[in-house]
Amino acid sequence: MKRLPSIIYETFPYAGILAGFFCLLFASTVVAVVCGVTLIAASMLIMKMRVHWRRQSAHRRART
To answer: Where do the TM regions start and end (predicted)?
Structure first.
């Protein structure tokens, strides 16, 4: 599995959270609320996975 370029998974979570909060802040429709919540959830998931990837790669380096 090819990993994303580091700039994407380093900066996207923060940009996604900001965009999600702006969507929720100016939400006038249900679609905007759903978009905001989805962006925030995806960003949190990417942040969680980033920690997992770091641990996994450190574990892999330690084994070899």
So the answer is: 12-45
**pLDDT digit string, tens, across residues 1-58:** 456 667 666 777 888 888 888 888 887 888 888 888 888 888 888 888 877 777 777 7
25 burial via Cβ count (<10 Å: 0-12, 13-18, 19+): exposed
Q: Which of 12, 10, 40, 14 is nearest to 25 (CA)?
A: 40
Q: Does residue 17 contact residue 39 with C-beta atoms inside 8 Å?
A: yes
**35 half-sphere exposure, CB direction, 13 A CA radius:** 13
* Domain spans, the chain: 6-63
Distance of alpha carbon 9 from the chain centroid: 7
